Amino acid sequence: MQNLKQLIKRIAFDLGFHAVGITSANDIPTSEKHFLEWRDLGYAADMNYLLREDPINAKPTKILSEGRSIITLLVNYYTKPPENPGRDFGRVAAYAVGLDYHTILKSKINLFQAKLRKEFGDHFISKGFSDSVPLLEKSFSRNAGLGFMGKNTLIINKPFGSYFFICEIISNLDIESDAEKEGTCGKCTRCIDICPTEALTVGAIPAEGEARQGRHESPLLDSRLCISYLTIENRGSIENDLRGKIGNWIFGCDLCQEICPYNKKIVETDWEEFKPQSGMGHYLRLKDILSIESDKEFKSKFGNTAIMRTKRKGLIRNACIVAGNNHSEECLPELINLSKNENDPIIKEHALWALERFNVLKV
Ligand code: B12
Ligand code: SF4
Ligand code: SF4
After folding, report:
1. Which string of b and e fits 219-239 if b means at least 16 CB within 10 Å?
2. What was the pLDDT predicted at 202?
3. What whole-number distance in Å separates Cα of residue 38 and Cα of residue 204?
4. pTM, two decimal places
5. Strand 126-129 and strand 89-92: pairing?
6. Closest atom, ligand 3, to C-alpha of 189
7. What is the mean pLDDT of each run of 10 residues along the chain (363 residues)?
8. CA quadruple 8, 10, 13, 19: dihedral positive or negative?
9. Residue 182: is it exposed, middle or buried by C-beta count within 10 angstroms (0-12/13-18/19+)?
10. What pLDDT, on the 0 to 100 scale, is given for residue 359?
11. pLDDT value of position 360
């Protein structure tokens, strides 16, 4: 048994994963209960994959019926952002500055599975993912010892902090589980205090039942308020009240990670794919985004990055907000053009909103 675990850890480190932990593929009903209470509060917004009537999120065997254990893997994606280049730029969250992690991680996970298949032959059955199935990846990786759940609702690992991706391989291998790691935020509330939209709270629903008694923090995030949701997942108009609070975030938000003491001494990633020079970087010039004329042009610029998710419409909507918040004068011609000639009503309305911030609506 120990040899099996050693083999898995060796393969993980050989492939460049930064940490690995094992947990059972059994259902986790206490986490499911919490998840259901969370979404009953409306906190899942309109994210369809979280709103299934018969949720599978806490039930790995609904994804792989032969599943016995889950190998959870950590990949550090952190790179330090350069100094803010100023009002003409919008900021991209660190996880999206390089190449699209879905593609990069999927191929590494496939390689991992191929190596295991080589060891165990056709008897080995598995499925591997990162951020592409409705599984409670944070809860399973916490159970596998990858870290503890911080009040920013992210998994925090020592020494990697929270800027990492979680991947998992569900398989029919019987592997001894790792122990959950101790860890706590203590009295710190910095992430809650800094969140501009007050998306984070603690304790609105009790902590995860019996198993977690004695641990008082029950971190909760209301996606409807989170800048990450608003700028990436939300397909529609962004509420007027929230636009000013988005500041200069054009894609995602890292404020509740940046402030976290656990992220103060972390190392930068050694994966070239996630470095800014492999993708579009930490800052995007707003006028370059506002002047993208077609979906084809958008795809040719962002095709290899996670930014694709917003499509042209979402990214231009976000760029309008940031240009308005920043009073980026160099964006005025593009904003005026969009307000007059853009066919998409959401982009048009956001361009008009940005122009109102300059008081130049009648230009
Ligand atoms: C939906 C989603 C979002 C939503 C909602 C976020 C959220 N906090 O749930 C939005 C769009 C807002 C979002 C934003 C981001 N996301 Co996201 N997202 C997801 C996704 C797809 C599902 C998460 C989910 O199921 N949420 C539902 C809630 C209820 O689940 P939960 O937080 O796990 O809830 C548990 C805890 O509350 C726990 N609990 C309850 N009480 C208690 C008490 C104690 C003491 C403890 C310890 C636990 C506990 O029980 C609950 C059920 O298990 C996952 C991938 C996946 N499949 O898991 C990525 C994922 C969570 N996202 C990730 C990332 C990187 C981000 C961003 C950093 C991106 C960015 N920079 O913009 C932000 C961070 C925002 C934030 N502070 O969370 C990573 C996080 C890695 C990590 N270190 O934890 C994940 C795991 C993707 C991946 N595979 O790497 N995301
Ligand atoms: S990602 Fe930004 S908006 Fe979302 S909870 Fe963290 S600080 Fe708040
Ligand atoms: S900022 Fe403080 S409260 Fe928030 S996750 Fe980090 S340690 Fe926990």
Report:
1. bbbbbbbbbbbbbbbbeeebe
2. 83
3. 9
4. 0.95
5. unpaired
6. 3
7. 87 98 97 94 96 95 98 98 98 98 98 97 96 96 97 97 98 97 94 97 62 58 98 97 98 98 98 98 98 98 98 98 97 98 98 90 49
8. positive
9. exposed
10. 76
11. 61
- Greatest Cα pair distance in the chain: 73
**Where do we find the tokens 């939209």?**
197
Helix axis angle, 345-358 relative to 332-341, nearest 10°? 140
Distance between CA atoms of residues 235 and 215, nearest Å:
37
Indicate the length of the chain as a whole number.
363
Question: Where exactly are the structural domains of the chain?
Answer: 2-83+90-280
CA–CA distance, 71 with 309 (Å, rounded to integer): 27
Quick: pLDDT tens for 304-337: 999 999 999 999 999 999 999 999 999 999 999 9
CA of 38 to the centre of ligand 1 (A): 12
Q: Please return the burial class of 298, using the count of CB atoms within 10 Å of its CB with bins 0-12, 13-18 and 19+.
A: buried
3-state DSSP helix/strand/coil percent for the chain, to nearest 5? 45, 15, 40
Tell me which residue of 148, 146, 137, 20 sits closest to 73, measured CA to CA: 20
Question: What's the rounded Cα separation, in Å, for the pair 276 and 280?
Answer: 6
**Distance separating alpha carbons of residues 234 and 104, to the nearest angstrom:** 24
| 3-state secondary structure (DSSP) of residue 276 | helix
Measured in whole angstroms, the distance separating CA 136 from the mean position of its chain's CA atoms is: 13
Which residue in the block uniquely carries the two structure tokens 């020079």?
A: 277
User: Sign of torsion, CA 74 77 80 86?
Assistant: negative
The two tokens of residue 139 are 């809860």
Residues with Cβ within 8 Å of residue 19, at least 6 apart in sequence: 73, 74, 146, 157, 160
CB distance 229 to ligand 1 below 6 Å: yes
Question: Whose C-alpha lies nearest to ligand 2, atom 1?
Answer: 253
Distance 192 CA to ligand 3 centre (A): 8
Give the distance (Å) from ligand 2 centre to CA of residue 23: 29
User: For position 219, what pLDDT does the model report?
Assistant: 85
Pull the structure tokens for residue 70: 């889950």
Provide φ and ψ at 203, rounded to 5°.
Answer: 95, 5
Contact assessment for residue 103 and residue 305, using Cβ atoms and an 8 Å cutoff: no
